[in-house]
Amino acid sequence: MLEIQNLSVRYKGTNQNALSSIDLTLQEGEFVCILGKSGAGKSTLIRCMNGLHKPTSGEVFFDGEPLSTKNEEQLRNVRREMGMIFQHFNLVPRLSVLQNVLTGMFGYRSTFKNLIGWFSKEEIEQAKKVIHDVGLSDFIDRRVELLSGGQKQRVGIARAVLQRPRVLLGDEPVASLDPGTSNHIFMLLQEMHVQNQLLTVINVHDVTLAKRYATRILALKNGELIFDGKPEDFTEKQYQETYDHTYEISHDRPILEYV
Ligand SMILES: Nc1ncnc2c1ncn2[C@@H]1O[C@H](COP(=O)(O)OP(=O)(O)O)[C@@H](O)[C@H]1O
Ligand SMILES: [Mg+2]
Fold first, then answer.
1. Atom number of ligand 1 nearest to Cα 16
2. Which of 90, 159, 95 is nearest to 130 (CA)?
């Protein structure tokens, strides 16, 4: 579904690769978590997957088609199939839950309709169903600025899901949330993943969450892929290689806690 061949990225004005010779094939149904220290290249890799960043060399294929040959309009069509959730939610604070979720429809509508903010009854029904799925029916008309962080991320997920993507990408979507809320958000992501038969790819700092929910873990270090395998094979040794230190008592929970 998503194939990455010999992908390297070097940002202008830097003398080191942000990503070096990455080879990966990701399939529908996989729930992939990407681990790595800050600066390892996680965000860059996600941005290359949806064509937001053009690789310095190598290629990303979506459904067998190279992204590098696509123009902006074709890339927008690709991105329409890839829902995205963000660390800081990227919602419109003064708009309601329903209005924010409806913006997930924008990719499917003409600019004129977007401008006048008109949505069909059917579109509103679809949005309400997704809001129900993420457990926010009681908050549907509330302005999102009044919601907790976990609720805001639920809105972010609902908006991405309403777009009916085939791929769901997340760039540290729980990095601003407490551990309990983060776990709930991952439970919801898993539910959406199964329900919508997605390929899900999430950058995450919390190794416990990755091991609990991922079907496959990738670890990046200095732009190189140093681990690609099953969650159960990501052990203390891999943790130490990835983060350059052993598990520290200051972490909230044991990093290799199994469920
Ligand atoms: N716009 C940019 N310009 C220059 N260097 C960048 C830019 N974005 C990221 N980098 C560098 O690329 C490397 C990977 O960054 P990033 O993908 O953001 O890592 P992560 O998401 O794992 O923290 C880092 O060394 C970072 O400093
Ligand atoms: Mg990042």
1. 25
2. 159
φ/ψ of residue 92, rounded to 5: -95, 110
Rounded (to 5) percent helix, strand, coil in the chain: 40, 20, 35
d(CA 135, CA 153): 12
118 band by pLDDT with thresholds 50, 70 and 90:
confident
Q: How many CB atoms lie within 10 A of CB 87?
A: 17
Within a domain: 134: yes
What is this structure's pTM?
Answer: 0.90
| Ligand 1 neighbourhood includes 108 CB (under 6 angstroms) | no
Hey, what amino acid is at 259? Answer: V
43 in contact with ligand 1, CB cutoff 6 A: yes
Total domains present in the chain: 1
How much distance in Å is there from the Cα of 38 to the middle of ligand 2?
A: 6
pLDDT band at 247 (very low <50, low <70, confident <90, very high): low
Residue 47 within any structural domain of the chain: no
Q: Determine the structural domain holding residue 123 and report its residue range.
A: 89-164
